Fold this sequence. Notes:
The complex is a heterodimer of chains A (115) and B (117). With 115 residues, chain A is mostly beta strands. Chain A has strands spanning 3-7, 10-13, 19-26, 32-38, 44-52, 55-58, 65-70, 73-78, 87-94, 104-106, 110-114. Chain B has no helices and 12 strands. Chain B has strands spanning 4-5, 10-14, 19-21, 24-25, 33-39, 46-52, 60-61, 64-69, 74-79, 88-96, 104-107, 111-116. In chain B, the strands form 3 sheets. In chain B, strands 2, 5, 6, 10, 11 and 12 form a 6-stranded mixed beta sheet that branches. Chain B has a 4-stranded antiparallel beta sheet with strand order 3-9-8-7, with no helix packed on it. The radius of gyration of chain B is 14 Å and the shape is globular. At the A-B interface, strand 4, strand 5 and strand 9 of A face strand 6, strand 10 and strand 11 of B.
Amino acid sequence: SQTIHQWPATLVQPVGSPLSLECTVEGTSNPNLYWYRQAAGRGLQLLFYSVGIGQISSEVPQNLSASRPQDRQFILSSKKLLLSDSGFYLCACKTPDRNLNYGYTFGSGTRLTVV
Amino acid sequence: AQKITQTQPGMFVQEKEAVTLDCTYDTSDQSYGLFWYKQPSSGEMIFLIYQGSYDEQNATEGRYSLNFQKARKSANLVISASQLGDSAMYFCAMREGHSTGFQKLVFGTGTRLLVSP
């Protein structure tokens, strides 16, 4: 089964500082990977997704970027954080196999507070 | 336009009673999937139940059942015999995308359920 490791669990960063959140996947290969953000008390918004190494698609314009340097590694970055970047960030993966019923796994999330 | 709508920001239920969390969706696809997730205060997303658009029977998983009404585009979650540990945020989500191509999950805004003793 798939396992997602996400770190750090909690992060407090000053405005204008850089950001790097890492997500690694175990137990599968060639997964689709996703970064979601959840603002306080709200639903999950898809930020980025990737179907393969070096392939990144952005869902919404923002201050963040994503990279996929290896098959099972997905990184969320920012050069200069804004207050509005605060939120709960979740990494998720989907194995592109024929089992369409389930297949989605989520990481434990990173709670980012920009001060 | 909102693709997944959860109209109940918060719900209260007494322990051991049943509760229904509403979810309506909007899609023109014939093939799609509907998910419910539970998010406790720790933030993890716990998969509860899945309903495929072609499934003729409503999905059930233990105390969870999904009341799927395709013509009305609704996929309500029913939790029977509520427990204190059921207090959490609940998200309805829809899988978008072609079955042989890229797919993604689109989420509603969630419903916060509070179970009282």
